[in-house]
Write a structure and sequence with these properties.
6-stranded mixed sheet; binds nicotinamide-adenine-dinucleotide; alpha/beta
């Protein structure tokens, strides 16, 4: 499979590639060149109805399989992902913009996620509850039914995999709605489902923008909604799901703090924080957005992190540079507006701050110093390669600054003092805290947000809580 310009992509419903109900198509743009890559079907609420009906029709056959049989299908999906790794990586890079090595890593991560959940298939146990009487009481965990998966554009393959894999293994069928600027990897993946032996209707992909997203989250035949995206859209999803009391799992934004204590290894901290904020051009919910640095080491840390920012080579993701472009034009403009705002608010640009003078949505890695916690650049998610460096003098103050935002997705602490590091980690209000590193944690580690960063957890065995509901069964054993 190779990706030809202006090729047309249909949606995947009930095991078939189909046109949208309206017959319309939208374009997806290569963010490194601003040239169209392909057209994809513009899904409507009517297409969502079709996809949800296909997913519902597929439930009896899928749920009749043993957990092990479902695990085997998901395992085969991992195999076909690996067999098609290079194509999937290339598609992801063209559509999303990220360096090819990162896309290769994402594809391997997807395969490993599928394998992790395939291996969990036979381990989804209930429990028995002591009654003290002539009864037996036990729980079973049952799938919800049709799972909607609404995906953002920053890491489509990974984010699709981490919801879909546990949903399927648990016995749900799924309808996936990728983001309108990065629909291609999901459709390419759909073309591989048949090779993996996924029964028709078990996985469906509806492409398009807000219309199919909203239709899915408010659909009365959808039994559970998993949404990854912005806080604002997450609130809208929750509101539409409320009409049917549909449970939601929300993985939303972050404005994550990295606290650098005075005894930290500064080279290590600068490496980790640069990776944390510049990887994927800063378009990661878990990014290291704010470095909160002790005043004694502030200047030295600043020099080290600026040195790392300056070393990044930007380019077309397909040429595998250190950093690719932002994903689409309006997002590029939003990031540039935040950089202007930072200057207006009185912060100092230590490096970067400019767009590249070429086609594509390229922004230099940018480091702001003199940032105060009440500035908007320190409060709002920029979702670009923009680091805010904030000084502190007392550890308690660092924790206050770290927690002085509406979101609480990830955080980090850098220190060689185990007590100081762990005490700080405990006080950071976030679902994941990294110590002396950034982006740590295996597939088995749960991931999700405190505060406005979300509801529920993905990854690890905790993800199954979004896809299985508990039924208690109590049996009367009194002899008659
Ligand atoms: P977004 O909220 O704009 O869109 C996410 C998805 O929702 C897209 O598929 C979009 O088409 C769809 N959508 C749009 N309007 C909708 C509506 N009214 N109802 C239902 N669906 C609708 O988010 P984005 O800009 O694509 O992604 C960036 C955001 O995602 C950032 O805030 C980032 O932090 C967050 N994110 C969070 C995680 C996490 O795990 N917590 C991971 C990645 C990204």
């Amino acid at each position: 499979m190779s990706l030809a310009t202006n090729e047309r992509y249909r949606m995947f419903i009930g095991g078939e590639l189909v046109e949208s109900a309206g017959g319309e198509y939208r374009e997806t743009i290569d963010p490194a060149t601003e040239e169209p890559i392909a057209e994809f079907a513009a899904g409507t609420s009517e297409d969502v109805d079709r996809a949800v009906a296909a997913a519902r029709d597929a439930l009896p056959e899928w749920q009749a399989k043993t957990p092990t049989e479902r695990g085997e299908v998901v395992e085969r999906l991992a195999d076909v992902v690996r067999e098609n790794a290079e194509t999937l990586a290339e598609v992801e890079t063209r559509d999303q913009g990220k360096p090819l090595s990162d896309s290769r890593g994402a594809v391997e991560g997807l395969a490993q996620t599928l394998e992790y959940y395939a291996g969990a298939a036979g381990k989804l146990e209930g429990k028995s509850i002591p009654t003290g009487g002539e009864e037996v009481d036990f729980t079973v965990r049952e799938p919800y039914g049709v799972s909607a998966q609404i995906i953002p554009w920053n890491a489509p393959l990974n984010l699709m995999g981490q919801g879909t894999a546990p949903a399927l293994v648990a016995g749900n069928t799924v309808v996936i709605k990728p983001a309108p600027t990065t629909p291609l990897s999901a459709i390419h993946l759909a073309e591989l489902f048949e090779d993996a032996g996924v029964p028709d209707g078990v996985i469906n992909v509806v492409t398009g923008g807000a219309e199919p997203g909203a239709a899915l989250s408010g659909h009365e035949d959808v039994d559970t909604v998993s949404f990854t995206g912005s806080v604002q859209t997450g609130a809208a999803v929750m509101e539409s799901a409320a009409a049917n009391i549909t449970p939601v799992t929300l993985e939303l934004g972050g404005k994550n703090p990295a606290v650098v204590l005075p005894d930290a290894n500064l080279e290590e901290a600068a490496d980790a924080i640069a990776l944390g904020i510049f990887m994927n051009t800063g378009q990661i919910c878990a990014a290291a957005d704010r470095a909160i640095v002790h005043e004694d080491v502030y200047d030295e840390f600043l020099d080290l992190v600026v040195e790392r920012a300056d070393a990044y080579e930007l380019g077309d993701g397909i040429d595998d540079p250190d950093m690719g472009p932002l994903n689409y034009e309006a997002h590029f403009e939003k990031v540039m507006d935040y950089i202007d705002l930072g200057v207006e608010e009185g912060a100092t640009i230590e490096t970067g701050g400019e767009a590249l003078n070429r086609d594509g949505y390229f922004v230099e890695p940018t480091v702001f110093s003199d940032v105060e916690t009440d500035m908007r650049i320190a409060q709002e998610e920029i979702f670009g390669p923009v680091l805010c460096v904030i000084p502190f003098s007392e550890r308690r103050e660092a924790v206050d600054i770290a927690n002085d935002v509406e979101m609480g997705l990830t955080g980090g602490v850098f220190s060689d003092d185990i007590r100081a590091a762990l005490n700080t980690a405990e006080q950071i209000e976030a679902g994941s805290v990294y110590v002396n590193q950034w982006f740590g944690g295996p597939i088995g580690a749960p991931f999700g947000g405190f505060k406005k960063s979300g509801i529920g957890r993905e990854m690890g065995m905790e993800a199954f809580d979004s896809y299985l509901q508990t039924k208690n069964i109590c049996v009367n054993l009194t002899e008659r």
